[in-house]
Write a structure and sequence with these properties.
The protein is an alpha/beta fold and about 350 residues long. The protein contains 18 helices and seven strands. It has a domain of about 110 residues. The model has no long low-confidence stretch (mean pLDDT about 95).
Length: about 350
């Protein structure tokens, strides 16, 4: 199992990022790189500067490979190369991209060539976990026909009916409880550091309730995350996807060269760069942080920022929402809550947008 790439796609809703931050062409934006989808979503807003930051070198390698593939491949070839459909010639496609990679990136991908063969959209630790979810849980609960039926639904009421009649069986509840237990998640799903500050006792119950919310209350027809979870792929030309929407793909071809990359933490960047960042997408980076480190990062951001600066971030299993009054940020509570209600990915327990007054 690949342990170096944790996420081969970004599992935060780009609509919350772009709407929450209200990105303008004058903005300098810093965003966690992760799998790259939110980097591309932000880039479509054409900010003045965009820094893709990650403390994991291999996540940066992944985003750079996606960016280069967008720039130099035609849409159908790109779709096939990433792994959204079967493809016999991914290695030959990869060889087309090699001239645009640096030596360390080429060395990494050559050493992990099986990830290229498999398709890089499924090369992360979390995506591998979801593969086993489909293989060991979902196949005993829903047929492929029923999965397709559910994904084609265009009515929330029908989604609820489907969940109760076809999905929410005794088998589903038992297998879910086992598969999303703390033990299996630490072993197969997420970095163990994400569990250090967790205070949720029954993790499987927590995710069961979150999943029920996602399955029954979020429109599935426009939810590419649900497609990825249930099938391991996303249909071609998926409307409003950062790069699978053909219109976005064509626009990104002209923009991806503008992305700047930084390996390190947010604190590392702010203490070594003088650029004035006006918008921050921080993903769920505070999951692994102590309360003290969480506050230190927010304090540094607020000190380094001008009036009107915005940040957004998610809470998952670790509650990070209260901080010292010395941190000069204002939480946009109602705005954050309204956005969170529309979040298409249901892993998270909260979403915050904050601004420097």
């Amino acid at each position: 199992m690949n342990e170096k790439i944790k996420y081969s796609m970004c599992w935060e809703d780009p609509k919350l990022v772009t709407n929450g931050l209200n990105i303008k062409t004058s903005d300098n934006v810093l965003s966690i790189a992760s799998g790259g989808e939110n980097i591309f979503a932000i880039l479509l807003k054409e900010p003045n500067e965009l820094i893709a930051l990650d403390n994991n070198t291999y996540q940066i390698y992944l985003v750079k490979l996606k960016a280069i593939a967008i720039k130099y491949l035609e849409y159908d070839e790109f779709y096939c190369f990433l792994g959204f459909e079967k493809c016999e010639n991914r290695i030959s496609i990869f060889k087309k991209l090699v001239p645009y990679l640096d030596k360390q990136e080429i060395k990494f991908w050559n050493k992990n060539i099986d990830l290229i063969k498999k398709g890089i959209i499924n090369c992360g630790k979390l995506e591998n976990y979801l593969y086993y979810f489909r293989k060991c849980v979902l196949r005993f609960v829903l047929s492929k026909k029923n999965i397709k039926f559910y994904l084609d639904l265009n009515d929330i009421k029908k989604q609820k009916e489907f969940f109760q009649k076809k999905w929410n069986s005794f088998t589903w509840k038992i297998l879910f409880k086992i598969f999303f237990s703390k033990t299996l998640m630490k072993l197969l799903g997420r970095d163990k550091k994400y569990f250090v500050h967790n205070k949720i006792k029954n993790i499987s119950k927590h995710y069961y309730l979150r999943s029920k919310q996602g399955i029954t209350k979020i429109p599935t027809k426009t939810n590419y995350f649900m497609h990825m979870i249930l099938t391991g792929s996303i249909p071609k030309c998926f409307k409003d996807h950062p790069y699978l929407d053909l219109k976005n793909y064509k626009k990104l071809k002209k923009l991806v060269h503008k992305i700047k990359y930084f390996k390190g933490t947010v604190n590392d960047f702010l203490t070594s760069n003088s650029i004035n960042i006006s918008k921050y997408n921080l993903s769920d980076i505070f999951e692994k942080d102590s309360q003290k480190n969480y506050e230190n990062t927010l304090l540094l951001i607020s000190k380094k920022s001008d009036k009107g600066m915005r940040i957004c971030y998610w809470n998952n299993m670790v509650k990070r929402s209260k901080y010292s009054k010395f941190i000069k940020l204002k939480r946009l509570n109602l705005f954050s809550e309204e956005l969170f209600k529309k979040d298409r990915i249901f892993f998270y327990s909260d979403f915050f947008v904050e601004e420097k007054p």
